[in-house]
Structures are given as C-alpha cells and as structure tokens.
C-alpha cells in the first residue's frame, strides 16, 4: 500500500541540506504524481535588530528569497515537474513552516533538510527541522 501524498511541501533556504531535500521531494513528487510546494521563510529576526540598515536588509532578504525560490522552481521544472507552486512568508522558520504554511497548502508530507543555515540558533533553541517535527500535523521526512 502506498501513501497518497497529494501535496508535498519542501522548505528551502539555499543551503546544501535544503537542496538535497528539494531533490528528494522532486523524486517523491514524481513517484506519487503529487503537487510540489516550494517554500521559503524570510527570518525577520535576522535583520530586525539592524535598525539603521533595515530597508537595505529587508530588500536583500526579499531579493534573496526570490532567487532561492526561482532557483528551486527551475530545478524542479528541469526534473520534469509541472505542478509546482512557491510560497514565501516572513517570520520564524521554526514556527511558520509547520503552523502556517503546511496547513495553508494542506501538505500531506514535508520534506526538509536535517540542517540549514540556522546553526547558531540551533545551538540555543533547536533546529528548524526539530521544531517542524514537534508541531506539524502531517508526515515529515528529514533528509540527511
């Protein structure tokens, strides 16, 4: 019996781990004939303390998010996928992925890398993948 994963969500941050997760999500999307949702969360806490540079940093974060999503979408298209959507949100990736994006897109499966760019935060409060596992209401695949 195969599980009917109709909507597969893959959060990407441009890290090597998220690219590996994207590749696995592409494979699974093909296997299940699913829709692939590629998501990026702009971590506003990363630039909120730099008041003097806020506008340039916000623009950089926005431009970077667009590039990450475009690159990921192109990778999925090059692999032959056609049913693809992208989602961009602001907030803490630790809560936004599981509590906002996954329910909004009705994800059946979240595929994500074991580690990403949040290494310093992980030392203090745990990783994004750990938080997603704790708070998600759908299946999770962690790609190493």
UniProtKB/TrEMBL annotation:
The UspA domain is annotated at 5-144
Question: Which Pfam families does the record cross-reference, listed alphabetically?
Answer: Usp (PF00582)
Protein family (similarity comment): Belongs to the universal stress protein A family.
Q: What is this protein called?
A: Universal stress protein
Tell me the organism: Ignatzschineria larvae DSM 13226
């Amino acid at each position: 019996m195969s599980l009917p994963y109709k909507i597969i969500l893959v959060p990407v941050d441009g890290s090597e781990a998220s690219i590996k997760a994207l590749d696995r999500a592409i494979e699974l999307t093909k296997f299940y004939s699913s829709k692939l949702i590629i998501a990026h969360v702009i971590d506003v806490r990363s630039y909120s303390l730099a008041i003097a540079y806020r506008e340039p940093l916000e623009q950089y974060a926005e431009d970077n998010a667009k590039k990450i999503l475009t690159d990921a979408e192109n990778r999925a298209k090059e692999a032959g996928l056609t049913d693809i959507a992208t989602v961009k949100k602001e907030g803490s990736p630790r809560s936004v992925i599981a509590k906002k994006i996954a329910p909004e897109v009705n994800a059946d499966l979240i595929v994500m890398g074991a580690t990403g760019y949040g290494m310093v935060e992980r030392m203090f409060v745990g990783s994004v993948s750990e938080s997603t596992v704790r708070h998600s209401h759908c299946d999770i695949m962690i790609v190493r």
